[in-house]
Every structure is written in structure tokens, then in C-alpha cells.
Amino acid sequence: MARRNTKTQRAPTRLIPTQPVRVDPVGPGVVLTSRMTLRPLHAGDRAAFVEAVDAARLALDRWMPIHEQGEDDHALFDRQLRLTEEGESRGTAFRRVGVLADGTIAGAFNLTTIERGLDFHAEANWWVRPEFSGQGLGAEGVGALADHALQPPPAGLGLHSVSAWIVPGNTASERLADRLGFKKQGESTELRRVGGDRWIRHALYQLQAA
Prior knowledge:
The chain is an alpha+beta fold. The protein has one domain (22-208): Aminopeptidase (3-Layer(aba) Sandwich), CATH 3.40.630. The chain contains 5 helices and 10 strands, in the order E-E-E-H-H-H-E-E-E-H-E-H-E-E-E. Strands 1, 2, 3, 4, 5, 6, 7, 8, 9 and 10 form a 10-stranded mixed beta sheet that branches. A hairpin with a 4-residue loop joins strand 2 and strand 3. Helix 1 crosses helix 3 (73-90).
């Protein structure tokens, strides 16, 4: 991957939706949107997370396989919980579930492979339960995630850029990325490993801090 601009003084990019995004003072790294709380996965989320994964199974298997080979939903939860905790402690990931007011997990919104070298950069991925499609929750969650990533500390992570790898034909994610200002990086695609042993072609989209 080509290195990006190393300019260090950048203003945060304005993203859609335009509702204020704030960090909840009751917990570290908890981001509030107009309808969701983006927070780390907790041990007590097992039932709600497994329910959400089951609801989104067909879409996940097609566009964003998240199970390792032979992994059931409970083993997936255990691994995601471990990855969340490791990412928090090492500063290498910012993994969040989007929780509605009634406690339903609507989806997941993640920043992974956070790098702070020549460029401060992360990769974003997300998924939303299909029953909430068309309601703007995806844009709301990804917009808040990217805004938090690009805001300077202490309000945000102070990253310079966020990229997203999207499977061609995943029109919902393609439109969402375009709406939020992610720019497609050419027409070429790259094979990316997903689900342990599957390789799927993805296109690269990137959002730069202003």
C-alpha cells in the first residue's frame, strides 16, 4: 500500500450525519450518536451479540465473513471480546458495537491495524443487522467512528486517514462510503483473506483528514 501524506497538523473532516458526536464521560472511548452508543464489547453482551450475528448471518457470509473456519457464534464472541480487549490495551484497534436504547446490538463499527508511524492510519470495517438497513444507522455509526478517528486528541484518536476495503457489488457499503467522503482508490482490486481461509477481492476506499 502506498504511504500517504505525512502532514501532522490537520483539521477533522466533517462527516455525515451532522449531529454532534461526543465521547460519553461515564466510560472511556464510548461514542454517542443520535440513536446508538458505540462502546466496547463486554462479557455480558454474549446473548445480544450472538443474536445480532445470527440476524446478519447471510449478509456477513456474503460480504464480510467474520467467522474463522469451524468457529461457531459463541467462539466468535469469545475471539471478538479478546480482540477488543487486546486492541484497547495496545492501542492498535478501536472496536465498538452499536447499541440501541433498548439494548439491541445493531451492528459493529471497528478501527483495526491502527498505525502511528510516518502516517497515523487505521482500517475501518462495519456491519449492520439487515432489519435496520435503509434507516441510516450504518452512516450514523461509520460517520461517528471516522469522525472520532480523525479528531485530534483528547477528543479523538488524531489519525490522518482511515481506509476501508469493500467487496465490489456491496452497494450498501459502497454508497455509504461515498456519502461519507471516502474516495475509491482506482479501479483495481486486491485479494484479502477473510474468515480464516477465504480470499475475496476488495476495492480500497480512503478518507483523509482535512
